[in-house]
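Quarterly update, task 2.4: acetyl coenzyme *A-bound model.
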Amino acid sequence: MSKIKPVYASFRSIGAYVPEKILSNTDLEKMVDTTDEWIVKRTGISERHIAAENEYTSDMGAKAAELAIKRSGIPKEDIDLVLCATVTPDYFNMPSTACVISDKLAIHNVQAFDISAACSGFVYLLSVAKAFIESGMKKNVLVIGAEKFSSIVDYTDRSTCILFGDGAGAAVISASEKKEEGFIDIHASADGSYADFLVTPAPGSIHPVSQKVIDEGLNFVQMKGNETFKLAVKTLTKDVKEILAKNEIDSNDIPHFIPHQANYRIIKAVGDALKMKEEQVVLTVHKYGNTSAASIPMAINDIWESGRLQNGELMLLDTFGGGLTWASALLPFAGKSV
Ligand code: ACO
């Protein structure tokens, strides 16, 4: 009887796209009652990038994906699954942004779909890619986190408009026979009882598009900032402690801790609770703001492009988002170093 060789999901490459236009805190001072000082002190954000009016989630996702494919060295004809995480899809609700991106990349006749897990979307997708690859169903999965968050932000609401930015990140996850290249572990979870912490009420089956939706601004993101903050710190810390303990890895042995980039104070509180040194913690929130599902792949791309992320080095991803959803992942970078 022939033995079936096990295969492991491995993180082959990373790419990202950041739109050209910058929205600085000084710009926001002219739009709402806020100050650069308040925003920097409470969030650590100095600026965020905003997509052009005719630049959509799929455009940004396709640009990030193109780079990730090129850097993987895998021909695009070999991609057999395209996944996109977004809460700001091109269309509500068909076609999926993954389908639109596939077409823009001329990747046809492969399975493609979106998932909605807000800021946890990219790490959620890594668990989906792992399952498809390690079950032998797919070999090369393109995973994309892309957001035009500015399309659901109310730029008269100072409590939310200062936080979010646009952008995209993508990775190619491939089957490998080498165990040392494979993902070590992923935890992904959710608790819908906190659904009202972060919500975009419309459009949806509860509130289809109507004059009421427009008049009451139900198409904009609404957030219980304070409650979200506290739960985020608690969940992110607990999740990392669990995944490290389960895999018997010490937090000091993680060269790259890549948390969701929502707020510097959240990242600092989590990093401190985990006794992480400053150089272990990846930070991009100051320049991109919170880009939701794109935040983690954009941060990975940042350290890869700057030469900080080398082949074989361990990454610890940690995220939370609307739903509420949360997820953490421990995995080596199995791509080429810069
Ligand atoms: N400028 C000046 N003052 C402001 C601003 C602003 N932009 N926004 C709020 N304030 C005021 C409030 O009105 C309040 O005033 P009051 O005391 O007179 O009522 C005061 O500042 C304090 O407000 P808080 O909400 O308590 O401020 P906090 O320190 O909690 O900071 C923030 C708010 C930045 C939103 C914080 O709660 C946060 O980051 N929360 C987490 C948000 C988050 O991560 N969301 C994303 C989740 S991921 C996803 O899936 C999308």
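Highlight for this quarter: The chain has a mean pLDDT of 96.
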